[in-house]
């Protein structure tokens, strides 16, 4: 038996049914006995929606009014009546089982399943299997129009059925015509058999994805604007009614390892993907979600993995994955199992634990845990921020794709290269950073944090032509974020004065920017970490700020830093060397490197290897071009330190450690010879700063 089903919402009709998230307001159905070609009673039920504001199209097509719908039953009661009336009609016809049959897939997939999911009640099993009359019709009549172009009216016209839509109520005509089409398909000329119904998955299935898989780009979408705490199950619920491929939800992480509110979702076929695109700007809670097309390559980049260990860990199907963060580095599997306790048993015991490690085997403090059911996972999440050893542990929901991403991050790139390409510090002559007292520079204060070089040049207007090459310097704070300040070297003091007069308190985007004339010495002092205010100059802190373009992708470009500061960061000082120190009074020759976009100076010495949502930073290196490295290799360098390996690196410091604690730790040791800075060409002011706090060499 079939139950022919038709419905309408308070909004769009036809091909856009369900695309506007409007609620169901009408259900019409009739039972059809396929074997005996009999029908049951035709039923029509109005549904009371939470929002009775009907669209103009709905009013025109259906003839329904808010007043009439206000007296109807809500959806859950109507669906109960539906089940009872269908069972009664089946008994009359002497049948016991049935399958739904609808005009297309929109009513089932785009209306009933999403709405009941949002209203938190379950649909009966009969709504997870149905026949699409349009597909069945095209199978029976291959010469008819394409499936996507079919409607009830076009199918009836193709068969020459003489039905008048105006003579029947809205919904009644549609069901009667669908029944007539079905009987025509069952006639002796066709003898159509309904054998392969459409199915709707009851739940999302997790699973691993290999980078060697082939993913059809016509099956992938990108969802944007997700709440950061949303899980793969939340995303599957948003797309309720559509069939997501196994392991097809991949939450995206940003460069800091935080979830960035995006996810890539892979569906079983292109038809499901096209239906998903119709949910653009549908809501998840109070947030609307944007849905766009994506590619298979993008999905594999996020969700694909190559590790056999991860594949084995994720091979257990239908498991809930929890992420643990902040584990002590000495934590063992027994420690984690003891922390979780008997109330949340781990699937497979130790086999259900996956510790995340660096390529050299050191632990990162992260681990993933498998639980067999939602109850055990909820019990584990209750232990969020409880203590293990001397550290509190954070627990979050996770996904198979996130496991792959995190392992890929740690295993693909070593934390610190064993033999990094050396940094070549140089400034192309003759455009060095000025150190004199001539006031040929200007300081911009109060820049928008999103401002870039192009914004500054536009802000300067005609004065752009008076800027020295390499003369724009963006200042970042100690966290590597834009500080809102920038310095610009002009060709003369007069030009700097004119710019300060013309551009002071001029608007950039939605903020006014202050412009002050200053000297190169003052500019250099601030770039080295000091402060410049109305009280004068304050010495730099113990830590150099980063000088960088506002785009954080600048890590791949060669480093260019001031020569004075560069002496403190020579590769020979950063890495132990086997060279025999050779004292020399001559300054080392410089190796010139012009970056691709030499619009400013920048010095990045920090690289992030994140662990969501936050993790420590570590010293990294920026590779110089091969030509520059070759030139540097043939040059004779003046040794910076009196003997190899005199500089040590401290790892594992508490985040609140200050310089006093570090100096106290090394109490009793001579941590810097007095003549260290004598090897460097410095101004008197900079030398006094370096000599006063010895912390400079403990950086």
Automatic annotation (TrEMBL):
<comment type="similarity">
    <text>Belongs to the ESRP family.</text>
</comment>
<dbReference type="GO" id="GO:0008380">
    <property type="term" value="P:RNA splicing"/>
</dbReference>
<dbReference type="InterPro" id="IPR035979">
    <property type="entry name" value="RBD_domain_sf"/>
</dbReference>
<keyword id="KW-0507">mRNA processing</keyword>
<dbReference type="GO" id="GO:0005634">
    <property type="term" value="C:nucleus"/>
</dbReference>
<dbReference type="InterPro" id="IPR000504">
    <property type="entry name" value="RRM_dom"/>
</dbReference>
<keyword id="KW-0539">Nucleus</keyword>
<keyword id="KW-0694">RNA-binding</keyword>
<feature type="domain" description="RRM">
    <location>
        <begin position="320"/>
        <end position="400"/>
    </location>
</feature>
<keyword id="KW-0508">mRNA splicing</keyword>
<dbReference type="InterPro" id="IPR036397">
    <property type="entry name" value="RNaseH_sf"/>
</dbReference>
<dbReference type="GO" id="GO:0003723">
    <property type="term" value="F:RNA binding"/>
</dbReference>
<dbReference type="InterPro" id="IPR012337">
    <property type="entry name" value="RNaseH-like_sf"/>
</dbReference>
<dbReference type="InterPro" id="IPR050666">
    <property type="entry name" value="ESRP"/>
</dbReference>
<dbReference type="InterPro" id="IPR012677">
    <property type="entry name" value="Nucleotide-bd_a/b_plait_sf"/>
</dbReference>
<keyword id="KW-0677">Repeat</keyword>
<protein>
    <recommendedName>
        <fullName>Epithelial splicing regulatory protein 2</fullName>
    </recommendedName>
</protein>
<dbReference type="GO" id="GO:0006397">
    <property type="term" value="P:mRNA processing"/>
</dbReference>
């Amino acid at each position: 038996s079939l139950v022919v089903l038709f419905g309408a919402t308070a909004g769009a009709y036809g091909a856009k049914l369900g695309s506007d998230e409007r609620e169901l307001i009408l259900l019409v159905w009739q039972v059809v006995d396929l074997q005996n070609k009999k029908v049951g009673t035709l039923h029509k039920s109005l549904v009371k929606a939470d929002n009775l504001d009907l669209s103009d199209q709905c009013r025109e097509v259906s003839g329904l009014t808010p007043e009439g719908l206000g007296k109807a039953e809500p959806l859950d009661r109507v669906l109960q009546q539906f089940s009872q009336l269908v069972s009664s009609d089946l008994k009359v016809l002497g049948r016991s089982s049935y399958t739904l049959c609808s005009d297309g897939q929109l009513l089932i997939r785009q209306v009933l399943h999403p709405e009941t999911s949002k209203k938190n009640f379950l649909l009966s099993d009969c709504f997870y299997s149905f026949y699409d009359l349009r597909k069945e019709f095209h199978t029976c009549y291959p010469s008819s129009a394409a499936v996507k172009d079919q409607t009830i009216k076009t199918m009836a016209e193709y068969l020459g059925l003489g039905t008048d839509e105006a003579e029947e109520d809205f919904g009644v005509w549609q069901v009667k015509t669908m029944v007539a089409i079905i009987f025509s398909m069952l006639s002796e000329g066709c003898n159509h058999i309904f054998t392969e119904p459409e199915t709707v998955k009851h739940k999302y299935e997790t699973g691993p994805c290999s980078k060697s898989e082939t993913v059809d780009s016509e099956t992938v979408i990108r969802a944007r604007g997700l709440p950061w705490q949303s899980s793969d199950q939340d995303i599957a619920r948003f797309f309720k009614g559509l069939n997501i491929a196994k392991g097809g939800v991949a939450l995206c992480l940003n460069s800091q390892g935080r979830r960035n509110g995006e996810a890539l979702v892979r569906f079983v076929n292109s038809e499901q993907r096209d239906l998903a695109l119709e949910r653009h700007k549908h809501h998840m809670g109070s947030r609307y979600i944007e849905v766009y097309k994506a590619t298979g390559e993008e999905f594999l980049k996020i969700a694909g993995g190559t590790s056999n260990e991860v594949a084995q860990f994720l091979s257990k199907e239908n498991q809930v994955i929890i992420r643990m963060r902040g584990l002590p580095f000495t934590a063992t599997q027994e420690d984690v199992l003891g922390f979780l306790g008997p109330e949340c048993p781990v699937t497979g015991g130790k086999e259900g634990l996956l510790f995340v490690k660096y390529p050299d085997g050191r632990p990162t403090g992260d681990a993933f845990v498998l639980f067999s059911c939602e109850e055990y996972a909820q019990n584990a999440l209750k232990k969020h921020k409880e203590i293990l050893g001397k550290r509190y542990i954070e627990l979050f929901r996770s996904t198979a794709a996130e496991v792959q991403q995190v392992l890929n991050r740690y295993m693909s790139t070593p934390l610190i290269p064993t033999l990094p390409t050396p940094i070549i510090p140089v400034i192309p002559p003759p455009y060095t950073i000025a150190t004199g007292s001539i006031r040929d520079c200007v300081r911009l204060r109060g820049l928008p944090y999103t401002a870039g070089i192009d914004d500054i040049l536009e802000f300067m207007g005609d004065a752009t032509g008076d800027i020295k090459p390499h003369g724009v310097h963006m200042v970042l704070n100690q966290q590597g974020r834009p500080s809102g300040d920038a310095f610009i070297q002009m060709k003369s003091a007069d030009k700097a004065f004119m710019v300060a007069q013309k551009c002071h308190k001029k608007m950039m985007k939605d903020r006014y920017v202050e412009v002050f004339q200053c000297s190169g010495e003052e500019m250099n002092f601030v770039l080295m970490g000091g402060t410049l205010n109305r009280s004068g100059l304050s010495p730099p802190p113990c830590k150099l700020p980063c000088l960088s373009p506002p785009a954080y992708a600048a890590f791949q470009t060669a480093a260019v830093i001031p020569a004075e500061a560069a002496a403190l960061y020579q590769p020979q000082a950063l890495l132990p060397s086997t060279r025999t120190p050779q004292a020399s009074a001559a300054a080392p020759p410089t190796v010139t490197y012009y970056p691709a976009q030499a619009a400013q100076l920048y010095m990045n010495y920090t690289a992030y290897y994140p662990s969501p949502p936050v993790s420590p930073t570590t010293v990294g290196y920026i590779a110089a071009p091969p030509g520059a490295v070759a030139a540097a290799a043939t040059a004779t360098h003046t040794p910076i330190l009196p003997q190899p390996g005199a500089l040590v690196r401290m790892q594992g410091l508490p985040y609140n450690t200050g310089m006093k604690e570090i100096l106290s730790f090394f109490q009793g040791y001579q941590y810097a010879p007095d003549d260290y800075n004598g090897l460097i060409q410095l101004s008197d002011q900079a030398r006094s700063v370096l000599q006063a706090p010895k912390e400079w060499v403990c950086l």
